């Protein structure tokens, strides 16, 4: 690994697909994770934590698939200090030429005694054994002291020294519960540099959670004290209040390089906006408007005094431009009405030369997708290039055929009534229902027609686009047998968009039911 040749280079370790994903209400499919991983690769991150292979078959497969596809970033997998975790990690990652195993164990008193019910010596032994086991798979091993922020400093120094001696090449110091303040966290990193004799044999990394809103400040302070890797998530996703936000640290380091004595990262700033939008969309986690760097208000000037200042000189209230992180004025909205020219222009803007794809083929696949989705985004278009498997050709089990709604105001004597005609496999049936509003009436019909009894846990509606052409975008989350499924629908008619969103979720549930059935059959064949 030639990572640390430049002493001023700060490595960006992205954990959107692991720490970020584990906090989402619904897990992502392999295809969704791969789409995010490819964007992170283009964003210039150094290491991608692709998942936690032992946690499920799905995670194992995602880690393997992503590891095979990455062009620049090093794939990494997470493992507890447990032999079977490390084996699963090694097996999933070995498809890549170079990969990292990240093994962790908690070191704070409260975790060691109350959670793990072990002694400090037990933990140290498990850590050393695990690092050595991981080294049998790769020479790139990261070890994390979970809850390092609350770990007694003498024990932390001992752990770090022994983990390095056992072969760890990166030592990660997480502020797992986001408890420390910058001076304190910087002090922990400084103490490690002062007291651990073999510290120069590893890269020191930090992994800060945002419970007190300090994640970015703590990470920046840590690099001022010698840390050279920051672990972070796009849009600050992650457990509870989230992880350190990738775009915030990357832009802070870029913009304040002089103050930070020349520290720098490999992040391609112009790709930040696009990656942020992609992650928000795929994870169904909208970016808050006031979010630093990527929020819709991050570059908006509202008060008269500010507007006056900006008109005279932008730098009065603007420390960075929206263009510098990749926001462009020309957002391309692609629908089934878009022509080949638009598709070509969008692919060119995304950096794909004309001879790298077959326009006719992409265009016919695009039209099918646009028919199904209403609006196609640039990353959908990119996915058509990436993926051999043609999702737009996979037929949906449920398809809306007709929809009629009568509603005149529930408080004025009208009873909202809906009739829905739906195809389910080869059968088409119609149902009529009433409800406490038009959407409720439609949802009652869909529930009867699909036979899927799920609970709506969230419903949001947004205008996508502007003016008369704006599409209503409805996102729903439903709970089905304890699992969360997400559905999205778009239409100029918001009731139709609502119907499409629930039907989309039902199709995903139907696919999940099929996969579960196939797995059960496989297991019963194996046990015969
Ligand atoms: O927050 C944390 O401590 C973690 C570890 C697994 C690195 O996510
Ligand atoms: Zn974490």
Question: Would you kindly provide a written description of the structure presented here, covering whatever features stand out?
Answer:
The chain has 528 residues and is α/β, with parallel strands linked by helices. The protein is 41% helix and 20% strand. The protein is built from 17 helices and 16 strands. It has helices at 16-22, 30-43, 57-69, 83-93, 109-115, 120-135, 153-166, 182-195, 215-224, 246-255, 272-283, 304-312, 340-349, 359-373, 378-386, 438-450, 494-526; strands spanning 11-14, 47-51, 74-80, 100-106, 141-146, 170-175, 203-208, 229-232, 334-335, 375-376, 398-406, 417-424, 427-434, 455-464, 471-480, 483-491. The strands form four sheets. Strands 1-2-3-4-5-6-7-8 form an eight-stranded parallel beta barrel, surrounded by eight helices. A three-stranded antiparallel sheet has the order 11-12-13. Strand 7 (203-208), helix 9 (215-224) and strand 8 form a beta-alpha-beta unit. Helix 2 packs parallel to helix 3 and helix 3 packs parallel to helix 4 (83-93). The protein is globular and about 75 Å long. It starts with 10 loop residues before the first strand and ends with a helix.
Q: Which key phrases capture this entry?
A:
528 residues, alpha/beta, eight-stranded parallel beta barrel, 17 helices, 41% helix, binds zinc ion
